[in-house]
Specification:
Blueprint lengths: L1 E2 L3 H17 L1 H5 L3 H19 L1 E4 L3 E5 L4 E5 L3 E4 L4 E5 L5 E5 L12 H19 L3
Length: 133
């Protein structure tokens, strides 16, 4: 089960990296190594911004953020918080906390449809996490 933001949210996430990358294209083309490296980094953020989301597999959760992807065994999940974040325990017994940016609402600064999708996806994630095996 894939839990993704609405398409407008995904586009906005992409623009966060895409706009600076485009702005750095000219200096990068003129030979600036720093601008080229920065443009490449922003392109990575743009692609990851589109892919931000959650995938609930049979036995594990995959949380894709702007900078990293976290995989958590379903059996290790303790709770899904209202932030939203997943609280889980590592194999060595350490307590971990992974934010789920794809479901983070913008405190009234988004459309009703976007807010409803995030709330619905958060509820679906909680139901999935509550089922064990």
């Amino acid at each position: 089960m894939e839990l993704l933001p609405t398409t407008p949210n995904r586009i906005a996430n992409t623009v966060l990296g895409g706009a600076p990358a485009v702005g750095l294209a000219v200096p990068a083309a003129e030979g600036s190594g720093v601008a080229a490296a920065a443009a490449l980094a922003f392109l990575v953020v743009a692609v990851r911004g589109w892919r931000v989301g959650v995938r609930c597999e049979r036995d594990r959760l995959v949380v894709r953020g702007f900078l990293w992807t976290r995989r958590v065994d379903r059996a290790r999940i303790g709770a899904v918080t209202g932030f939203p974040a997943v609280r889980w325990t590592s194999r060595r017994g350490g307590r971990r906390w992974t934010p789920v940016l794809a479901l983070l609402d913008s405190a009234g600064e988004e459309t009703a449809g976007s807010y409803a999708r995030k709330r619905e996806n958060l509820a679906r994630l909680r139901r999935w996490a509550a089922r064990r095996g």
